Task: inverse folding
C-alpha cells in the first residue's frame, strides 16, 4: 500500500510542477499564503534530478527553504538531497536560477525561524509535532545565473 501511495504522491507532484511551469508560477505558486518555488536537485544516491515544489521566503538576496515535511518526524528527502548536493536549480515564477546551498547554523537558524513564523505562523507548531529541530537552508543565486524560462 505504501508503494501505491508513494507513486500517487509522485504523480501529483509531477502534475503540480507542470501547472507551475505552464502558468509561470501563477498556479501552484502559493501554499497556505506562502510563495512556492520549484527546487531541482540530484538524488544523493542515484544522482537523478528530482524537482519538488517547496515553500520559501526571501531574505536579502537569498531564498530560505525549510525541511519541515509538515511536521513529520524525519527530514524530507529533498532536504537531505539538498544538503548533500550543495547546489541546486530553482524556478521562481519566470526565473530559473542556479543557487548555492548554505545550511543555517544555530544563530542564523534562530533569526530565520522568527522571520518564517512572521510570514507563516502555522510553522510554529512543527518542531513540537516533529520532535526535532526543523532545518533551514539559504539558497543564494550564483552570479549571472538568472535566465527567463520560455
Result:
Amino acid at each position: 500500500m505504501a508503494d501505491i501511495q508513494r507513486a500517487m504522491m509522485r504523480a501529483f507532484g509531477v502534475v503540480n510542477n507542470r501547472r507551475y511551469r505552464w502558468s509561470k508560477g501563477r498556479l501552484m505558486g502559493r501554499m497556505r499564503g506562502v510563495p512556492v518555488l520549484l527546487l531541482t536537485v540530484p538524488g544523493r544516491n542515484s544522482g537523478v534530478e528530482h524537482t519538488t515544489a517547496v515553500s520559501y521566503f526571501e531574505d536579502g538576496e537569498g531564498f530560505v527553504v525549510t525541511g519541515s515535511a509538515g511536521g513529520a518526524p524525519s527530514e524530507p528527502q529533498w532536504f537531505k538531497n539538498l544538503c548533500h548536493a550543495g547546489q541546486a536549480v530553482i524556478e521562481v515564477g519566470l526565473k530559473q536560477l542556479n543557487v548555492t546551498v548554505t545550511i543555517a547554523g544555530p544563530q542564523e537558524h534562530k533569526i530565520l525561524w522568527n522571520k518564517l513564523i512572521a510570514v507563516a505562523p502555522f510553522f510554529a507548531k512543527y518542531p513540537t509535532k516533529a520532535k526535532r529541530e526543523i532545518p533551514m537552508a539559504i539558497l543564494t543565486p550564483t552570479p549571472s545565473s538568472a535566465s527567463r524560462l520560455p
The chain has a mean pLDDT of 86. The two ends are 39 Å apart (CA to CA). The longest strand covers residues 49-59.
